[in-house]
Amino acid sequence: MQERPPVTWLSASVRKAAPTMAKINPCFRRIFVFFNVLFAIFGAVVLGLGLLVHLQLDEHEGKFSAVALLLVVGAVTFVLAVLGAYGAQRENKNVLIAFFVFMCVGTIVLLRMAVVMAISRPELTSVIKQELNKAVPLDEASGNIRSTMDYIQKQAKCCGLFNGYQDWGEQVPESCDCGSDEADHCQKMNSRYAYMQMFEVQSRMVYSQSCGFMMLEYINLVFDVTLGLLFGFATLALLGGVMSLAMIICITAIPRPKSISTPPIFAISPHPPKYTELIESA
């Protein structure tokens, strides 16, 4: 008969599990990757649009700084989005740190641009108005200015810059003429010379709305949209930086070891324990 090993009155054992590395919450990581993929697609679309416009301008009109701006914005957005998505998916601390630094720098740059534009907006509007007034009288302006004004007057149904048809002197173009079905937006054009009014058979009707004020409204709208985009992208960059910082902290955090303790095991023996067994169990 096989002998049973000596059993003490009371024995307990504790098993400690090996510490595991801290992991990013899967839902949090998926949300971060999803939005970075969306921004990568947006950057690729902007980059492709910039390249397309660049090729078209090379063939016809030339190059503009707006094309370069599209290329830079598209490329930077695409690279940063791919960087953030890769770092979060692979839980790479170094990549996430680089993404966090870029987001902080981007937030500062965008906020600085937005604040400067908002502060200097009234001064820029005043300068633009002064530059437009330098073109008066329009009948003595260059051919490019006259053709541009003709196109604006036909499309916007306006006349002159800030003083209506009077900005054209005595040579008011036909683009200022308004039809009989637009009487609410028309005014009678009076010649500045009395003898011409005496021989005038039929009064000429021109648009009463000045193009300069409409141009300033359009410029203000461009300012509003630009400021909204700058503050919006700054907010998104700040949010991306905060989320990447949270993932960095989660990866570098030292997890607490989890211990699993087994309940005490009691064994009853009909014989009292020996002195050596008591010493060993102690």
Could you please describe the fold and organization of this structure?
The structure is a single chain. Helices cover 60% and strands 6% of the residues. Mean pLDDT is 78; it is low at 5-22 and 193-197. With 282 residues, it is mainly α. Helix 1 (26-59) runs antiparallel to helix 2, helix 2 runs antiparallel to helix 3 (93-133) and helix 3 (93-133) runs antiparallel to helix 6 (211-252).
Structural descriptors:
single chain, two-stranded antiparallel sheet
Element layout with pairings:
Layout: E1 10-11, E2 14-16, H1 26-59, H2 65-90, H3 93-133, H4 143-156, E3 186-189, H5 194-198, E4 204-207, H6 211-252, E5 259-261, E6 265-266, H7 275-281
Antiparallel strand pairs: 1-6, 2-5, 3-4
Classification by helices and strands: mainly alpha
Question: What strand line-up does the widest sheet have?
Answer: 1-6
Assembly category: single chain
Give the averaged pLDDT, no decimals: 78
Compute the separation of the termini in Å: 30 Å
Query: What is the general shape?
Result: elongated
What percentage of residues falls in helices of 4 or more residues? Answer: 55-70%
Low-confidence stretches: 5-22, 193-197
Major β-sheet annotation: 2 strands, antiparallel
Share of residues in strands: 5-15%
Count of β-strands: 6
The radius of gyration is: 39 Å
